[in-house]
Design goal:
binds flavin-adenine dinucleotide, alpha/beta, FAD/NAD(P)-binding domain, about 300 residues, 2 domains, five-stranded parallel beta sheet, about 25% helix
Length: about 300
């Protein structure tokens, strides 16, 4: 039996592994598809302290190398269920069951994609999901923001201070985000809003996004918008359903937990983007990983 099983090997899970291993606990790190998590999709990470610039995949490799050097066991397997056996937990995967005295859920979340042809290949080459992360790469350029909720409007406010032009494309006839944000945007001369409109296809040149095709859903009119970048802000999707029996989820599927990273179940902790929180970044995920790991260590030491 392992001391701690960590589900998800993004920045939160990797940091949790590092802290647990340095506290002399045995660790199994389960990852379903991509050691490193979401950041591997980013061509440049520029807002992690001490690192001027690094590609997301190089950053992920360094994290993995570090936890393996400290003695983590890793498995490429998706956790499908956690069973609470009291003083230990069973994590079931497609390849069998694993036992641990404590479990840390660090399954992250995924940005919803538009589902258009070529979209996946253009992530990091004109398509972004995060103005805080990637906005500066589009300074002085023309970008579109897709969506009309709070995230889309916040992204647009941030981008309007950096970019020459920001066009918000919303599928409804109104914005669903806060009025206050909308009022800020309405006063900006470089922001334009297009309503009742869907993005129907993407055009690229030299592997970079160059234009998007639009269709007005009330008039059927089509048009082409040339641009340098597109920020997709149509929501995020955590994948916490397998753990819903043990941990309370909010209406959006995030595990309800505060800065202490504790869940409803003793011995089950949560870290990173998969929990309820306001800022979802590598730094905040790493912070949660440390907090959750040390809480899990205290829990185990109390049991022993
Ligand atoms: C394109 C892009 C650019 C970004 N740029 C930046 C940036 O510049 N700076 C910044 O700070 N942040 C950036 N972010 C955000 C940052 O990547 C996330 O906030 C951070 O990765 C969250 O870490 P996490 O460990 O909580 O979750 P994730 O990184 O999402 O990792 C969770 C991991 O859990 C795995 N998993 C999920 N379910 C299971 C399961 N059932 N069993 C096993 N494994 C599972 C997933 O496959 C994934 O690898 C960017 C995000 C994207 C998409």
């Amino acid at each position: 039996m392992k001391d701690i099983i960590i589900i998800g090997a993004g920045p939160a899970g990797m940091t949790a592994a590092l802290y647990a291993l340095r506290a002399d606990k045995s660790v199994l790190l389960l990852e379903k598809e991509n050691f490193g998590g979401q950041i591997t999709y980013s061509p440049k990470l520029e807002n992690y302290p001490s690192v001027m610039e690094i590609s997301g995949s190089a950053f992920a490799e360094k994290m993995l190398e570090q936890v393996i050097a400290h003695g983590a066991d890793i498995e490429l397997a998706a956790a499908e269920k956690i069973t609470d056996m009291g003083d230990y937990k069973i994590v079931s995967t497609e390849y069998g069951d694993f036992e641990g005295k404590a479990v840390i859920i660090a399954t992250g979340s995924k940005h919803r994609h538009l589902g258009l042809e070529g979209e996946e290949e253009l992530i990091g080459s004109g398509i972004s999901f995060c103005a805080v992360c990637d906005g500066s790469f589009f300074a002085g350029k023309k970008v579109a923001v897709i969506g009309g909720g709070n995230t889309a409007l916040q992204e647009a406010v941030m981008l309007s201070d950096l970019c020459s032009e920001v066009i918000i494309v919303q599928n409804l006839s109104f914005m669903t985000g806060e009025k206050k944000l909308l009022q800020i945007l309405e006063k900006k001369s470089n922001v334009k809003m297009i309503f009742d409109t869907l993005v129907t296809s993407l055009s690229a040149e030299g592997g970079e996004l160059r234009a998007i095709s639009l269709k007005n859903t009330s008039t059927d009119e089509t048009s082409t918008l040339e641009l340098d970048g597109m920020f997709v802000a149509i929501g995020q999707q955590p994948e916490n359903q397998p753990f819903a029996a043990l941990t309370a989820l909010d209406n959006y599927g995030y595990i309800i937990a505060g800065e202490d990273c504790l869940t409803d179940t003793a011995g089950v902790f949560v870290a990173g983007d998969c929990r309820t929180k306001r800022i979802r970044q590598v730094t905040t995920a790493a912070s949660d990983g440390a907090v959750a790991a040390l809480a899990a260590c205290r829990y185990i030491d109390g049991l022993n």
